[in-house]
Amino acid sequence: MKGRYKFMKKKALSLLLASCMIAGSLAGCGGGAQQAAPAAQGEAAAEAETPAAPAADEGSDSAPAAEEAAPVDEASLTATQKIIREAEGMSMEDLAKKAIEESNGQTFYGVGNSSRGKSALPLFIEYLQTIDPSYNMEFEWQQPKNNKIFEQLTADSLKEKGTFAMTLIQDGNQIESKMVQTGILDTYIPKEWAEANGTTPDAVDGFLPLQTLNKVFMYNNTGSASYQNCWDFVGEGVHSLYMDIDSEIVGKNFLYMLTEDTYAAWLKDAFNALDADKQAYFQPTIQAMESEAADLGLGADGAYALAWIKLWVESYNAQTDDGPICNTLVTDSATDQSGLLVYSKLRSVEESAGVSVNNINVAAYQDGYTGIGGYGYCHYLFVTENSPLPWTACAFIAYMTCTEDGFSAWGKDMGGYSSNPEVAAATEATYGHSKGGYDDAGTLQFEAKNDRGYDWWTTDGELVLEDPEYCASVSFTVGSWIELLTKYSEGEAAE
Q1: Is the backbone of residue 145 left (phi > 0), alpha (psi -120 to 50) or beta?
Q2: Can you tell me the mean pLDDT for 464-474?
Q3: What pTM was estimated for this model as a whole?
Q4: What residue spans define the domains of the chain?
Q5: Does domain 212-376+437-483 match CATH 3.40.190.10?
Q6: Alpha carbon of residue 317 to chain centroid
Q7: Exposed/middle/buried for residue 381 (C-beta within 10 Å: 0-12, 13-18, 19+)
């Protein structure tokens, strides 16, 4: 049965998970903690071929479909969930009035993987001041390093009333298993967001994405190397630059998703498009993975996924961040090097002697390229279950997902696609990312900067899309298998 209020049937699991997380937190934090937040209100259930974030086109098939809402047991809802349910029936202006009443003169604390929350909050305050000029709210936005955000939110959940009102967070796997199933975070779906996507809040089954970001395959074009197929990035002697999967766990989710039937089939199709010599190189690895795929319970094409993953993990050159990867690839000395990195990093390249965006190609943009073009993952928005300002948190989330100004902190750059098709269209009209490689005179300067957009990337570009529930379902099985692989060490061959 669809609908986000399904937590009662998972209550035993949720309480067990919460207990385990609390025990771990207490070991490092000492005593005096309150009880954990109640069980989660929702679970992610998007199919892999249906992205978590809708396309930037109102007619897209990827937008959440309207369906009959599941009945809700009001008695089972927590105080915060009741506020959320009420907020989901309100217009943004009416919700803003509730926020003004709740938070005038208060301090709003947010936490997220993106630092741009601190850019969006002043705009949100200005919006509230258009309704009540006397309104004032202080704010603080925190951005914990690496994966500390999960620890921080878990520790904060032990308080009867938390510090953080809401969060902007990535890594669907850990969100599902550590935050939602344990009841630490609650999903709020704005009324206007749902309407823009042709549905209703109570019919949305899954998390609320602010945006989809894409990591895409790129390569330096100053040499003779040719990357015409996604298997070329795991070819003999190739060591693509990539953020280490142990430092950015969302990168491991990419590998998890490759084992899903849809994407495994993409890898098989790409393999079949290779010439005979290249097929002969990869075939032994694929054959060796057939028994592994069966043991892991993967589908018919699972061996192709495991083979690509094995070759990737045993060959990629681990980096600490996408920025340095970009800075390397755009130099004329990085001949034939390749990488998988956030597309938006091209925005910050400073042209100089020996450094240019024109030194790289976006693989999927090249005529004749076959196979996976990259990986799409989301920034998700949640209200904390013990939020001190739940009405204001909902209003801020609505502002970011339902207005162009609210999304502007992220929308000003290419490679970040609003989950609201109306906001996405307005953002493109304002910033013209599809023509981002042209100068003011209309002359093409940088082909790679012409962002083809969410719809293109999720169709022609064969962007693998994160499904939090699928990632969580294979994180132990496929995840454990990945942990046993031997990583590439620069200067020495993988064992």
Answers
A1: beta
A2: 96
A3: 0.84
A4: 7-209+378-426, 212-376+437-483
A5: yes
A6: 23
A7: buried
pLDDT tens-place string over residues 31-78 = 333 323 323 333 333 333 333 443 333 333 334 444 455 566 677 899
CA distance 199 to 276: 48
Beta-strand pair 166-169/138-142:
unpaired
Answer whether residue 8 shows pLDDT above 90: no
Token duo for residue 188: 């709020």
> Cα separation of 94 and 268, whole Å?
51
Tokens 């890594």 locate to: 171
DSSP string, 169-211: E--HHHIIIIIITTTSEE----HHHHHHTTS-GGG--S-EEEE
- Measured between alpha carbons, how far is 220 from 360 in angstroms, rounded to an integer? 4
431 burial (CB, 10 Å; 0-12 / 13-18 / 19+) is middle
Question: 488 with 195: CB under 8 angstroms?
Answer: no
Per-residue pLDDT, 14:
38
Q: Give buried/exposed letters for 434-451 (b at 16+ CB in 10 A, else e).
A: eebbbeeeeeeebebbbb
Element (H, E) at 218: strand 208-220
Q: What region does 447 belong to: left with phi over 0, alpha with psi -120 to 50, or beta?
A: alpha
Q: How far apart are CA 217 and CA 343, in angstroms?
A: 9
Region 216-243 average pLDDT: 96
Whether 487 and 494 have beta carbons less than 8 Å apart is answered as yes
Q: Name every residue whose Cβ is closer than 8 Å to that of residue 207 and which is 6 or more positions away in sequence.
A: 42, 44, 52, 172, 175, 180, 187, 378, 380, 382, 468
Q: Which CATH architecture has domain 7-209+378-426?
A: 3-Layer(aba) Sandwich (3.40)
Task: Give tens-digit pLDDT for 115-157.
Answer: 999 999 999 999 999 999 999 999 999 999 867 999 999 999 9
Average pLDDT (211-234) is 96
Q: Is the pLDDT of residue 179 over 90?
A: yes
Q: Locate 35 and state its tokens.
A: 């009880």
- Burial (CB < 10 A; 0-12, 13-18, 19+), residue 365, is middle
Write out the two tokens for 294.
């069966």
